[in-house]
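Ribonuclease
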Amino acid sequence: MDNKRVTRRARIALALAGGTALTAVVAQIPANATAGQAAPHRAASAAQHASRSAGTADGTSYDDTYYKDAEGKTGKALKDALHRIISSTQTGKLTYDQVWDALKETDQDPDNSGNVILLYTGRSQSKDANGGNPDDWNREHVWAKSHGDFGTDTGPGTDIHHLRPEDVSVNSIRGNKDFDNGGTKVDEAPGNNTDDDSFEPRDAVKGDVARMILYMAVRYDGGDGFADLEPNDNVDNGTQPHIGRLSVLKKWSEQDPPDTFEKHRNQVIFDKYQHNRNPFIDHPEWVGEIW
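Tokens:
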């Protein structure tokens, strides 16, 4: 999760590992998140940079199985290979109503099984406090559904790789804005900023946001009856099937590498719901090899 820090013992172990591909989980200390309290920025661990082997928090690798057809590729060839992999293996597709229960599991607070962690606020909130009231949580489309006009139809509108729990009023403030740095602070969500045409999430989830956007660009390429989603380097994209800024999203992915919470979420979606993976969580270096 975004509020866990690598222990000194783990750092020593990593130093001793010296260049070996790491598959063990790095020991981490949780910090309790409570309702109304934003989770602190996570520390990027050496383990997250030391290994290029795609794997889960328990050390399971998918390079020789799930990603075997993508290995050794770069650029468009890599993007095309990943599209074939993540679209052909997405055998589970949810309705918009089913998303509620899925998010209660994918975004469960590891320190409180009755709560979920809200994406932008970082608040731990009761799973049952979902709905349409200002302090409830609802279903945030990180790739705004108006960018490509896919709505809440089964497909991009219900793909839980980019749907996250969020406070209703903060979700409304984000609206369908593109992502960029700057703006004025969002009072209800400390660490987030916004202006007329963009939204900047808190540091602890900047990379998460970037990898969700880039997953969508690979997964939805104009097939399935939906628009070809592509990031660009603009803001104020309106209803066009684009979200920016790509240059900023790439930096966010580098600055905020995948953590235990994000990896676990990817695994739950793979095991129990859609049966496909976000390749940029498993291989964050592929961001720079495609874009």
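The CA atoms of residues 90 and 274 lie 5 Å apart.
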